[in-house]
Amino acid sequence: MNHGAEARRASVPQSALAVQSYAVPVERPECRTLFSEFVIPDSSSPGESLIEVGALQASEFNFAALRVEAFSVAIIEPRPRAISVAIGATKPRIRTFTFAGGDDQNDPLPCPTLGRPLPHAPRIAPADGNGSASAIDRLATITRIAPPEDLIKLEDRLQCVLQPPLETLLAQQSLDFPAHPFPYQFEGVAFLYPRFGALLADEMGLGKTMQAITAIRLLLHAGQVRRVLLVCPKPLVTNWQREFAHWAPEVPVIAIEGDRNKRHWQWHQTDVPVKIANYEALCRDHELLADPAARFDLVVLDESQRIKNRASTTAQVVRSIQRRRSWALTGTPVENSPEDLVGIFEFIAPGHLSSQMKPRRMGRLAADYMLRRTKDRVLKDLPPKLFRDADVELTPQQRESYRLAEDDGVLRLSELGEGATIQHVFELVLRLKQICNFDPATGESAKLERLLADVEEVTASGQKALVFSQWVGTLETLAERLDRFGTLQYHGRIPSRDRDGVIRQFRQDPRKHVLLISYGAGGVGLNLQFAGYVFLFDRWWNPAVEDQAVNRAHRIGAAGPVTVTRFLAADTIEQRIDQVLRDKREIFDTIFSDAQPSKHRGLTQQEIFGLFKLKCPAGPIRVAG
Amino acid sequence: MASDRGQTAVPSLGFLTVVPHPQHGLFGGYLLLNASGRPLEFHCTAPLKPNRAQEILFGPTLESYLYGEQIGQSLAAKASQAPLVMLSDVPAMLALRPFVAQPVVLVLPDAEPARTGEANGSTFHRVDAAHGQLRGLFTFSFGRNALALDAAHADDRATARERLALVAETFDLAEPFGRIRAAIDEAQRSGR
Question: CB–CB of A136 and B143 under 8 A?
Fold first, then answer.
C-alpha cells in the first residue's frame, strides 16, 4: 500500500480563481485536512485547469491512503453583474434663427441717390489665395453694434448682435474718412446706427456732428433710410453743409431756404436724401410737413435743447413730423431742470419719461437712449483744461457804487411788491454786473487790473488769449485798455463779412495776442485751439454758454493746456449767481451719474428773484439765459 | 459619415464655436455668413453637460466627442444650407470633419503661423502632447489668418484655400467668433 501522498490532477471549474486542496483519508473521509491553497491567476483559459499537488508522506498523516480533492473557491464572482451606462446618445436641443438675405434688421429701403464713395477709400486688404501675409490687415479696433433695449424680440436682437463690426461695414462700403475717427466716435456711431430713438449728448467739441453724419451715411448706404431731415439753429445750417461735404462727400444735401415756393419745391424734392432746415423754417412750413408724402425715415435735431419746453411751438412742430427714427443731439441735455430732458424725450421716445419722476429713476430709464461722454474721459491725449477762479475785491469806488445801486434797486423792487416782474429783477442784476466790471463813475475796475497783469504774462510768453464778455461796451473798453498787447474784436458790432478776416488775422499775426469776443457772437462755431488762455471777464447766466466759449480753445487740435480764468467779484451778485448754479449741478450729476459733473444749468425766474430774497410772483416760470 | 448635402447658390462660410459655462455646461453656436459678412443663419444649442460616465469613459477624447460629434454635427445638420468651408476657433471641433463634406478649418489665435522653413510654409503641431490620442495639426496661412486642419485631413488645404478665396476677401476670420459669443450671451440672458 502506498502510504505516500498522491499527486493528482484536480479538475477545477474554469471560472474558479482560487483552489483549496484537501488531504482525505480514504477510509475516513470525514477527516479531511487542508494542505494547500493557491490562486489561479487566469480563469479565462478554457477547459480544466491542472493542479499539481506535491508528494505527501502518508506517514505524516498516518493514513493508509490519501486522496486529494480540489475545490474551486469563488473569490471573485465568476459572472459579474453587468450595468449598462448610457454614454451620451442625447443630441443637444437647438434653436435656429434665419435672417433673410443677410441684410439688416429691416427690409432695406430703395437706395437713395448717393454719389460714389471716394476712390482712394481704404479697404480691409484682401487675403490672397496664395497666402500672402501682407494681404489682409486685421482691424485695429472692433466696434460692435449692440442692440438697444427697446428691441424686444430675441431674433431682432440677435440680428443686431450678429452684424459685422462697424469698421467692417465701413470698409466693405469703401467709406473713407478725411481723418481717422477716434474710437469713442466709432462707439457713438455704433450707438446711433441701430436706434430708432437716441440722444447723443457728448460734451461740446467731441464731434457729435461727425458721429451723426457717419451714422446717417451708413444707414443711407445700407438702404435703411432714404429720406433724412436734419434740423438745426439757423446759424449752423452752413456749418452742417460744410461738415457733410467733409465727412460724407457722396451724400447730396440740400438746405431748405428761400421763399415759400422755393421751400415747397425743396421739401418735395425726392432725389436729395438729406435735407437741412433751421427751426424757424420748420415752424413756418409746418403745414407742408403734414403732407403724408413728407414722411422721413430719420429726423435729427441738432441743439435739441431747443425743444426742452414741450409746450413751445417749435417742440410741437418738431414732434408732428412723420418719421421712423428720431435722434437728438445736444451737449446740454439738462440746462435748467430734469424737465428739459423730458421735453427732448417726448421727441425721441414719447412717454418714456415724465416730469414726476425722480432724477435717479429718470437717469436709469434714459440710460439706454442716451450716450454722453466728456472730454476728460475719452480724450486722454487732449491737453488739460486748467481753471482758475479769480475772486477779485471791488475797488473802494466800485464797492460804493455797487452798494448804492443794490440798495436802491432792492428798495424799488420791494415797493413794486406783487407788481415786480422778471424784467425788473433782470435789469437790476445786469446793472450790478456792469458795476462789477467797471465803475460807471470813475471807470475803475478791479477785474481789469488783474487781467492786465495776466495778459502781460501771456504776451511775454508769445501766447494768445481769448477774453469773453456779455457786453460789447465792456469789450470796447477793454480794447482801449489792452491796446498795447495787440487786440482784435469779434462781436455783434463787427460786420459779418469782416469776422472771418478777424479770426484769420488773430491766428496768423504774431503781434495780435488778445481776441475780445462776446458770448453771443463767438460762443459757437469758432475753432481757436491755438489760444492757450481764456478769460471770462464776466459770467454768463448759463454755464453751458461759458463752456461753449472755453471750448473754442479747448478742443481737438489744441497743442497745449488751456488755462481758463473765471473772474468773480467777491461779495456781489456774481458770487450769488455762481452759488445757485453750483447747487444745481447736483441735479445734473444725479441724472448723468456716469458722466462727469457739468454746469449746464441756467437760472429760473424763482432763482433770480431769490438772489435778492424776493418772493417770485405767480405765473409761468421762464428761464433766463 | 460625411454629409452629402450640396452647397447652395449663396456662397457662405460657417463659423462654429463652443462657449463653456461653469454652471450650465457647453453652449454651441453656428453662424452662417454671406460673402459680405452678414448673417444668414444662426443656430445655438441648449447647454450640454457631459455626465460622469462620459468623463470617465471618454477620457482625453471627451472634448472632441462633445464638440465635434455632439455639438458640431447637430448644429451642422440644422443649417438649411451647406457652407463652402466650416471654421472654428476650438481645436476639438476638428473632430467634426468625418461627418461633413466640407473642409473644417481651425482659425488659430491672432499670431503668425509657425515658420519652419519648409517650402510650403506648413508644419505639424501636436495639440495633445500630454496624453490622449495622437492628433496633429496641419497649419497654413491665408492672408494674415493662421489656419489649421486636422492632419488626417491635410488634403483639404487646397479646397479650403480655393473656397475661402471666393468669399473671404475682406474677412478677418477670427472676428465672427466674437459675434457668436455675444449672440449666445444674448440668447442666454433672454432665457433668464
Answer: yes
